[in-house]
Design brief:
The structure holds two protein chains of two kinds.
Chain A lengths: L2 E4 L8 H12 L5 E4 L12 H13 L3 E5 L7 H11 L5 E4 L2 H9 L4 E3 L8 H9 L2 E5 L6 H9 L7 E15 L3 H5 L18 E4 L5 E6 L2 E9 L4 H7 L3 E4 L6 H12 L5 H5 L6 E2 L15
Chain B lengths: L2 H10 L4 E5 L3 H9 L4 E4 L17 H13 L3 E6 L8 H14 L3 E4 L2 H10 L5 E3 L8 H11 L3 E3 L6 H10 L3 E9 L3 E6 L1 H6 L3 H4 L8 E5 L5 E5 L2 E6 L15 E3 L2 E3 L7 E3 L4 H6 L4 E4 L6 H20 L8 H9 L6 E2 L9
Parallel strand pairs in B: 1-2, 1-15, 2-3, 3-4, 4-5, 5-6, 6-7, 7-15, 14-16
Antiparallel strand pairs in B: 7-14, 9-10, 10-11, 12-13
Helix pairs in contact in B: 2-3, 2-11
The chains are: A alpha/beta, B alpha/beta.
Chain lengths: 295, 347
């Protein structure tokens, strides 16, 4: 059976909300929990040591904890934050940038390769495996057919494959903060306004179609990617870990439902309900990511 | 730093190399004739990030281009900077093989597997790290240098001038930065906006907001609409200048506001900060635009050749020339230019 993981939270929540969220998560059958700030270094409700402390609590409750690093590094101080995490001495790291991979390979530490390392083929997979990667997250735009091919070329299952299966897709990363831009504030004086939008800010086309979602320097999909119904298919092609990305509401419920479905409770996922935001699953079927393919 | 680049640095001092784009043989010739030190190119397929219909080189045309440049003492690079797909891996290694056989002076790569292949197969063929690899720190550069012996890296357009300078001081390889052309506002190689809307991205298909998905239509009241795979990217009033529907430069609605939520149609222009780039140790300035015409290439190459020569002969007295800026603006999206992320206030 595939394992269930909870990806790093991409949103900026008040500390109390974060703590309550993970307390709830600890009670679910989730196997792996990624914690840490992977989007913006200015968000400091939780400092690196706070994330490590939270990790210890989750680990004490039987969860495998992985610390996620920043995805886009610009200043030296940001590289320093990544280094601090890489030197935590306790938990595995999800390297979301090659800089983290470099730090970890120098220390000969095993790591998880994040989706933006851009591993699109078995040759790249081997390069990173040789540097200590023990699990990798497939690029979000990689479809079922390509992933099947890639995994078929790598029959020695010496590392785990993880697929982003639920939540808003992180589509792009920029030097510019779109939340600050929306509020007409310079990035350096953003006032951390992104804390006001626990699920980002929706972007619609001028004819009202839900298209994107702005979340600080990250641009997300407007629609919610949902590949949870494909879990059997993922198992068949060799996916080891199914990732759910945090949302303020309904996340723990989805973990519980997926675990129930895997345990044989037909319809558990359907009973959680689709919610109010449209779904998409196009990438998995080799189409536009925002497409909704009926299966 | 490789021994090659040490030798080069000694030979050229602190020269700034001008690296110009070419999507055809006439464009390559225009770049060389107007002062490019180096011209970068790509094959006519999805192995490079300007995979546009009718653009780029057949092996034969590229051989002629290399001969033209080499006779005049200039260099030619070949970009193989998309991410190789498992089905078709051979297409990417074939491109590396072609580059070696055609005698280009270096290849520009992003894919770790392909970098590994190139290093093992053609160790003496210079490897440059593409902007698509999104390396923004000395640690990332060391990774690519130690594992694949890259000689140079092209920096993403997300760093401020201060960050670029700092990186140049720490970098184990030569650095190349963008000077002019279309502006990617997202970290290159980490933007899936195009494939979210169309299925094709720069990483996989070598194209952003590809033309095959573009539809223009005019409403009864004269408004012009641009769509990408059905998604409304922009709507223009009669008489309003309508630009290509590049996804991040469209107008959308957020919280009751309508506008350029991500970026206005504008181009990068760093003429103004040329001396700072030079003194910080940047080795090469890259102009964007393999998709542009030979006339464009000739004009922008000439402007940059003159600017670099003026900057090198008198760095302190150098000022961006108003005529040069006007020429570049004329070639820019929306006739506007920006310093982009180089200037902190843009961010």
């Amino acid at each position: 059976m595939p394992k269930i993981s909870l990806g790093p939270c991409h949103y900026f929540w008040p500390r109390k909300q974060t703590e309550a969220f993970y307390a709830r998560v600890a009670d679910t059958p989730v196997d792996i929990v990624y914690v840490g700030e992977s989007v913006c270094p200015k968000r400091r409700e939780m400092r690196p040591e706070d994330w490590i402390g939270l990790g210890r609590e989750l680990a004490a409750q039987g969860k495998q904890v992985v610390l996620s690093t920043l995805t886009l590094l610009e200043a030296r101080s940001e590289v320093g934050i990544v280094r601090k995490l890489c030197e935590n001495g306790e938990f595995h790291i999800e390297a979301n940038d090659v800089a983290a991979v470099q730090m970890l390979r120098q220390k000969r530490l095993p790591f998880v390769g994040g989706a933006f390392l851009n591993i699109y083929n078995g040759h790249s997979l081997r390069v990173y495996r040789e540097q200590g990667m023990v699990r990798w997250v497939a690029p979000l735009e990689m479809g079922r057919e390509t992933l099947t091919q890639l995994l078929a070329d790598n029959p020695a299952r010496v590392l785990e494959t993880e697929v982003f299966a639920y939540g808003r897709l992180p589509l792009a990363w920029s030097a510019r903060c779109y939340t600050a831009r929306y509020h007409d504030l310079p990035k350096d004086e953003c006032g951390l306004r992104c804390i006001e939008d626990p699920e980002g800010i929706p972007v619609r086309t001028r004819e009202g179609e839900l298209f994107l979602n702005i979340n600080g320097i990250q641009t997300q999909s407007g629609r919610i990617a949902n590949l949870l119904p494909e879990w059997r298919d993922m198992l068949r092609i060799g996916v080891d870990v199914i990732r759910i990305s945090p949302r303020p509401e309904g996340t723990a419920e989805r973990v519980v439902a997926l675990a129930a479905e895997m345990a044989g409770e037909e319809g558990a996922l359907q009973n959680v309900g689709a919610g109010t935001v449209e779904d998409c699953n196009g990438y998995w079927y080799g189409q536009a990511g925002m497409a909704r393919v009926l299966v | 730093m490789t021994t090659d680049s040490v030798a080069d640095t000694e030979a050229h001092g602190h020269a700034l190399e001008l690296v110009c784009p070419a999507g055809s043989l006439p464009a390559l010739q225009a770049a060389v004739d107007n002062g490019a030190d180096t011209v970068y190119t790509g094959l006519r397929d999805r192995t490079n990030a300007r995979h546009f219909p009718g653009l780029n080189f057949t092996p034969d045309k590229l051989r002629r281009g290399v001969a033209y440049a080499h006779r005049r003492g200039r260099r030619v690079l070949m970009a193989i900077n998309t991410y190789a797909q498992p089905r078709g891996w051979r297409q990417w290694t074939d491109a590396v093989d072609q580059a070696a056989h055609l005698g280009v002076d270096g290849i520009i790569l992003a894919d770790a597997g392909l970098l590994d292949y190139a290093m093992r197969t053609y160790p003496s063929l210079s490897r440059h790290l593409s902007v698509q690899a999104s390396a923004t720190s000395a640690e990332a550069l060391r990774f690519y240098h130690e594992l694949f012996g890259i000689r140079r890296a092209v920096l993403p357009r997300v760093l401020s001038l201060a960050q670029v300078s700092r990186l140049a001081a720490d970098a184990p390889v030569e650095l190349e930065v963008f000077g002019f052309g279309s502006l990617c506002i997202m970290a290159e190689g980490r933007c899936l906006l195009s494939s979210y809307a169309t299925g094709d991205s720069p990483n996989t298909a070598g194209a952003c907001s590809p033309a095959a998905h573009v539809r223009w239509s005019e409403s009864d009241d004269g408004q012009l609409e641009s769509r990408l795979n059905g998604v409304l990217i922009d709507r223009f009033e009669p008489g309003e200048r309508a630009g290509y529907p590049t996804l991040c430069k469209g107008r959308f609605n957020v919280g009751g506001q309508t506008g350029h939520i991500l970026e206005e149609p504008t181009s990068l222009n760093s003429l103004e900060i040329l001396p700072q780039l030079q003194t910080s140790g940047i080795r090469a300035i890259k102009l964007e635009g393999r998709q542009r015409s030979p006339g464009y290439i000739a004009a922008v190459t000439r402007v940059w050749r003159q600017a670099i020569d003026r900057c090198l002969s008198d760095p302190e007295g150098y000022r961006a020339d108003a005529t040069a800026n006007a020429t570049l603006s004329g070639f820019s999206e929306g006739s506007q230019t920006t310093l982009g992320a180089y200037h902190r206030s843009w961010q």
